[in-house]
Amino acid sequence: MTESYFDTLKRHGLKLSVAMFLGGLLYSAFYYVALILYVIVAFLLIAIFSSASYILEGDTDQLADNLASEPGGMVLIAVLILLFFVTLLLPHSFWTAGAYGAASASVFRGEWSIGYFFTTGFRHLWKMFGQQILLILFFIGPALLMLPFISFLAVNGGSEVVLLIFLLLFFILLFVLSIGYLWISLHSPLIMIAERTGVWDSIRLAFRLTVKKPGQTLLSGLIALGISLGAYGLVLPIVFVLFILFDVLTGGNEIVRVILGIFLLLTILFVAYYALSASLLSIAHRYKTRLRSYLFPEDPDRERAFVGTTPGYAPNNW
């Protein structure tokens, strides 16, 4: 029997918050290490393809012109952009896989520990990375295809009216596609981990679910957003008022201010991660109780087949 959302939150919300905080620290370390490695690799590649004097002098305009004029320069720029994209997306994929894996284990099996965040994060890292790339290509790629044409109009002195129209269309299309990306990506990571699917199947099933139940899937996102905004709106004003009140009562004592500042920071961190945990648990709980049967009507209790297995385990199928 499935627990209610509030029972699940009471049992696992705090542990999930701690796991997300620790995972956030590892995510930050992962991100900065990847960024440093990217800078080193980018510097070496640019030094190979361009004159070192431009790099040492910091002449970025001359460096850009030099890269564009040399054979393979544009290819190098494309490679650097691609590597930068990978640098940003890999840490994000780890954190997304860990967060959804931990929330899935809490809701679907009720057996959970802080370590699940890290095991599922690393186990599903590359699958989540592939899923995020495909989702971005599907939803953001079409808008990006308009950029070369817009650039051509801007460089070659096209009509300003035509250019403005294309820019307006570009931003409208980008907004619509971004909403689609967020809508599908709300459940696709959860489906990939909870249902033991591959990258393609998770996107296909998330798309089918969104088409079948657009209102319910949108409601899941709105509820999650409402939980986060509600937590911030309820707790933070009270904390700020208390901070100001104590500051006035103590006459602006510096030591008291430091203590209150630390307390305020810790409160903000707790609210942020607990609200995020509550939001993810609501998405996973609504998927299990309200939405899952539309994808698997012949086997609504499919998760029973997974009881006793490692939470978040999935074969490396794509």
From TrEMBL:
Keywords of this entry: Membrane, Transmembrane, Transmembrane helix
The keyword Membrane is annotated on this UniProt entry: yes
Membrane-spanning residues: 21-52, 72-90, 133-155, 161-184, 218-246, 258-284
Source organism superkingdom: Bacteria
Name of this protein: Membrane domain of glycerophosphoryl diester phosphodiesterase
Gene source species: Planifilum fulgidum
Source taxonomy: Bacteria, Bacillati, Bacillota, Bacilli, Bacillales
